[in-house]
Amino acid sequence: MADLIRVKSISEFHSLVGMPVPDHPLISLITDDMLPPFDQIDDSLINVRYTSDMYSIMYKDKVSGSLGYGRNTYDFQEGTLVFLSPGQVYESPSREDLQVKEGWTLMFHPDLLRKSALGKKMEEYTFFSYAVNEALHLSPKEETFCLELSQKIREECAQNQDQHSQTLIISTLELLLNYCMRFYDRQFYSRTNINKDFVVSFEGALKNFFQSNQVAEVGLPSTDFFGQALNMSTNYLSDMLKKETGKSIKEHIDGYVVDRAKSILLNSSQKVSEIAYGLGFDYPQSFTRLFKNKTGMSPAEYRSLN
What we know:
alpha+beta; Jelly Rolls; five-stranded mixed β-sheet
């Protein structure tokens, strides 16, 4: 297995690739023309695994080659944007695999956002935990727009820091992330026919789970179970379902469980606790709470009214 290099700071990354000290210790825009030619990079940095303590937004265009990520590799296409969160591991390509490079990487440390409203919103940008093969594909206009916002951040970092610097850097970064969310929505909508096939596959997997012995073996299915079943990251599948159906994975699971429980309540004399265990709940109280949240009444009340 390739060696793992952990990059803890922006300064450490700059030093690692032979770049000058960054203008700002917590955020940096690195364009490929700032890096040494690929054939001159030290062998110790080629074909190794990397992880960092930072968020990274990587834009690549006109690239041949692939990026190792998790158990898979991703072949870059023109105009793709990949989002990495702290702690994710990826593998650099070999010299032979990556011949042409044109792009940029915006790296920022979580400490940049600690006291800001953006720091509290980062969980909303679920694309930072998408799989690498779920990258954002940009139109030429979107490519230019994202680069311009990233360059505004670099220009602000290069200025003498004053009381407005941090606010302007973070607000521009937030604007970039908000536009990326919009562009992902566009990508979801533009692939609606493909997505509908995945919705059908998901609904089939959900139905099959409860009609098989899997409930008895493992209990209620996790959201991760369906991500793995459809070979998607959990967040990407959930976001795609939300766009297509208005409901997340969890909402689909809960809705299916309640609908199934209604049928059992009306067509059997099973105790509520027996129904709860049969649907995969460890505790009947959890089932009753979910049922009441979804229907406004307890399972016993629902049974008595019908």
